[in-house]
Amino acid sequence: MSDASGAPPGATQGSAAAAPESSQFNEEIVQACEAVVESFRRREISKAEAAARLFRALKLNEVVEAEELGEREQAYQSYFDMLEDYDRDLRAAAERSPGVASSSTHRNSGEAHAQDDEANVQERDDVGVESGNERTVNRNTRSLLERLSDSSPSKRNREALDEESDEESVQNDRRGRLKRTIDESLFPFVSSSAEDTPELSDDLQKTLVLKENYTRDLAVAKQRVVCSPGCPPVPDSVWLDVLANRFVDLDKIFSAVYAVDGDNKNSVKFGDFELSGLPSKPKKHIERHGHWTIAWALYQRAVLFVYPHREKELRTYYDQINGFFAAVSEHEAVRVVNLDRAIRGEVGRSNTLLLSDFSHFNHLYTMHVVGSGASAQSSTTAPPSSRRGTGVRRPGSSSEACIRFNEGRCSSRNCRYRHVCSLCSARDHVASSCTQKTSGGPNADRRK
């Protein structure tokens, strides 16, 4: 608990006064971080869990300003150093403690080893905590703000690092001897995959071969791609999905075209740990044919860069989707956008489909484009009472049908007239395609 002056626990009046006034860390964040360090010192949580909790407590994924982000990263480094210090103290104490003598009674060798190992672990924990108490008291007397004001993180002792490295190498060797290798011959899907392979097209087999190779280490594959001179200018966040042949959100590519601040990636890496914040949502969304064409051109370049044999597949798909856009009115283009997302999502989840296999996507066309489709009605059709039920109407709005809309000349989202058929008031077609045509409509003399 902090005192009334708001200084962190263990800080004196002088240290609190000397802290920089520009610090944006409040008492709640300080207490949360110190609680995480204390839980790790008591061995209540693992080092990885402690690092993750510090990342969440400092809210690194919510910071957008560079100055504040740098300040919080410095705070994270300070607390992570505390975790490293505690961990090193416990390891050193465990090395200095003598082993527990084996029992004088004759027991089963397996049971004896298990109980001795358990006793050794308990004794190392007790000795480590006791030997680290004195250093813990001295360390906690330092104010958090004093640690943040240090010009650089605390330097590790080289000898301690060497000892820790030697110990870790020994432990890794033991794990390697004890680790069981997986028997791939028992995989039930291996034989079926081998039998189905000849039935796949040549292009699909080439895609699966490259995908299998890339997914062995996506990080390395991505590093080679983004460092290549011919790397297409797509956002960094989409490359893993492109390499793994998964669904790629074209909204991210479309947003990047108009972005002025580059890719924002909130991540901090300390040793073997890399903590990354959630990716930001796209600021722009594809709603029209032109939007989709801009994003598709860049997406196609990225795919062909790592899957060069797919040119015919992508060209065929583009021609088909382009035809769908031409077949619907401009205000219904979003249906084709949703169809594209659905098709690419299904192909990304399958290893047996190409984007050009349109005979497999008839149900998606019905769902998203056809007026009676479930998705089309839910996204574009709403009962008239739903708008009136809100009690909110645009100034000067009218309940009459828009004649210009029925003539295909109005696509405004803020039109004061209703964009429905002037003959039957349906939302999925216009008067020229209405089956209830009569000689003139009830609003035939109405002009916008």
TrEMBL record:
Basic and acidic residues compositional bias, start-end: 108-137
Zinc finger (C3H1-type) residue numbers: 396-422
Region named Disordered: 1-25, 93-177, 373-398
Biased composition (Low complexity): 373-389
Domain C3H1-type, chain residue ranges per copy: 396-422
GO molecular function: zinc ion binding
Metal-binding listed as a keyword: yes
Keywords, ordered alphabetically: Metal-binding, Zinc, Zinc-finger
Biased composition regions of type Acidic residues, renumbered to the chain: 161-170
Record keyword Transcription regulation present: no
Protein's name in the database: C3H1-type domain-containing protein
Organism: Trametes coccinea (strain BRFM310) (Pycnoporus coccineus)
